[in-house]
């Protein structure tokens, strides 16, 4: 019964939320959820009740069940719910129709819904077709849809292929959309190809089912990453394809980031921009030099998009190695991004130490090309040893990047600073800036502190 009740709670919660777990993108079409009785080609075979490794309880007679139902009004809701669960376990196979008739007379409405759903799910364990026929006659339409989906949930557990065939023959409308989402989740782990087929049949871009892409392709990539990647790459353009590629990249990178990276190189530049961070992060945690070597194969402009992420992840375990890599980057913009990552991790590590006092800040300085950050006492080995060094070197790199921006904006340059996200005004071009770094320590209102300030002043 535990399995039945778990399903019941999921159905009720899911229906109340519009089945919003992974299906937030579904949109009702306004069509009626009424469906025909199960077609002969999709009727489920009769099945014995499921064994749950416990002694089977003897069924109650209808007279005994009527007596229990008649006692419900005198119980508080928690006790009534426990009595309902106990009763549903003991309904004889041939008595579900009659007991459902009793359930429809109970109050309040929410309890009646719970009673109906629990009985239908239990009935579907032995006679899916009868349970579907009863559910199809429930009124109003919203309750009918809820009842049909409850039966479908049990059917999917016992015969996912047969249940999926029934889902496919449903007319277009909210019931079919919800049924596809429910069936897809049930199929994703055991047969992701069948789950995908259910979603894209007559809907090659997966429109309205974008949230299911991750469910399908995460499971698929865990067992056969190459096949999942090829299938995701061949999908029609749209949000479903993007979600599929991201799911494959994340799952593949957790098992074999180098192979995932090789696959990513076969994608378009736009796709690479979205999935490369999903590959770099787990790779940088286990083998940052290999991740850096992969990133070094990118064209400079594209590489700059990912330098900060790799530097920050690398610095979590090996600040010196990350610093050496950032220093090796030839292009100024990429190295500045790398130092941003290093300094961000330096401050983060300081916050995580027990003696760290609140008040660390890091952000833009008072003018273009300037940056300031302050970290208070007890940043530990990383902060006390490397903070001033990072500050000074970041100042030099930032100044270099600013010079590039000024050169770029001179007459005859390649384009405007706005095109590259760089800003440099006429005054800056006329008066070059010289970076400086100040180091201070003392005792303030918050206790002892060390600070490092990075900025730029007019060159003399």
- The ordered H/E elements are HHHHHHHHHHHHHHHHHHHHEEHHEE
Low-pLDDT runs of 5+ residues are 1-42, 46-54, 351-386, 399-439, 452-460
What form results from the Cα inertia axes? elongated
Oligomer: single chain
Q: How is the biggest beta sheet arranged? A: 2 strands, antiparallel
As a whole number of angstroms, the C-alpha radius of gyration is 31 Å
Number of helices: 22
State the distance separating the first and last CA atoms: 83 Å
| Percent of sequence in beta strands | 5-15%
| Widest β-sheet, arrangement of strands | 1-2
Mean pLDDT: 73
Q: Into which percent range does the helicity of residues fall?
A: 55-70%
How does the helix and strand content classify structurally?
mainly alpha
How would you characterize the overall build of this protein?
- With about 450 residues, the protein is mainly alpha-helical.
- Helix content is about 60%, strand content about 5%.
- The chain has a domain at about 300-460.
- It has a two-stranded antiparallel ribbon with strand order 1-2.
- Strand 3 and strand 4 form a beta hairpin.
- The model is unreliable at about 1-40, about 45-55, about 350-385, about 400-440 and about 450-460 (pLDDT under 50).
Record the SSE blueprint:
Layout: H1 2-16, H2 62-71, H3 77-89, H4 96-103, H5 109-124, H6 128-135, H7 141-158, H8 160-168, H9 174-188, H10 192-200, H11 212-223, H12 225-233, H13 239-255, H14 257-264, H15 269-286, H16 288-296, H17 300-303, H18 307-315, H19 319-328, H20 332-351, E1 361-364, E2 371-374, H21 380-409, H22 426-430, E3 433-444, E4 447-458
Helix pairs in contact: 1-5, 1-7, 2-4, 3-5, 4-5, 5-6, 5-7, 6-7, 7-8, 7-9, 8-9, 9-10, 9-11, 10-11, 11-12, 11-13, 12-13, 13-14, 13-15, 14-15, 15-16, 15-18, 16-18, 18-19, 18-20, 19-20, 20-21
